[in-house]
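1st attempt posting a full record on here, be nice pls
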Amino acid sequence: MSISSVESMTPLSSDLFYDILGRLDGSTLASAACSCATFCSISKEEKLWENVCSSMWPSTNRDDVKKFISSIGGFKKFYADCFPLIVNKEVREFRWDDYYEYPQEWAEAEYYGYEDEMEDISPSDFVSLVDIRYQDKTICSKVLWGIPYANDFNGWFYDCPFRMDLLAYTAGDDDQADAVTISLSDGLPPVQSIERERKDGKLWQELRGGIRLSWILVNHKIKKAANVSSWSTIGGQKHWPTGKDFLIRFGSVLPAKDILPCQVVECILTMKFRLIHTEGEGTSTTLKITELSMQLGDMEGSHLNGRNTLLVLKEALSCRRSKNYSEAVESCHLYSKVQSELKEEKMRYENRLDRLWILGSITACATFCLYCL
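the predicted structure (as tokens):
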């Protein structure tokens, strides 16, 4: 049996092509658009990219979010901005004594942000689209318009340490109706008891390997967006602060050139879980998300205030990105490595000062004793 070759795709229905391209993910759709003029033309349809975005980020499936994305350039542009992750490997290797002198070298207006620059930025300019997945199943989608409480209490937001909480949790209430939970039906492994989990750590390993976070920030004024999460975890702590709690960290390294002395800062996304049921309690194993927050920290580990945070976040929407997600994780690990080296150098620097102070005190005492004799 012979198979005739197809000379051209023109006789084929464009509806068929549209149906084929509509089944592709974003990366494959972008590649297909480069293969021929027909695919290129069809791939410009916004509806295709709307389906791609709603599949990857369910938070974009709301009617108000759809209108918002259309107003800032459309779904194709939104995908191109948010699918690659922020990568910043330009992390300087600081010397502690040099870094220590920076705040004195910078004028106060430079270190804490220019007032005229702040006139172009407002907390209400930012929109957060957050999606949490476990084992490729969406367990939570949230949309946050603006930064909560930022315009209250006479502008305290600009001078106080920045923190944005996405999930509200009432301590002691493990049966909240609107709680975000992960259970066996989501792919969570069964846990017979806390003691057993402490020994084998099976739940902890599955959680770290299976949880994914996307935190997209959009500035509607400049019509730019970026995903400030690392998608996969970059660290965590088991049994924090009690035997039933787990802490997992995501994040990215953001540029802060001409904003802060350290030139780069870390966007810290913290997710906390609490084990509220085990198999031994007669119900299925259930984890509850008790916190999802964002903070920005400098090389010393200090949290940025609201003023500098807005400046950094606006700058981050235009920085370099990569479709290679492992690069984003590597840049976070590089930042942590340099930060640890800086802390060690700081300790050595302070130890040298202590020794010099002790030596000076001994010398002064010996001189005084000789003078008395």
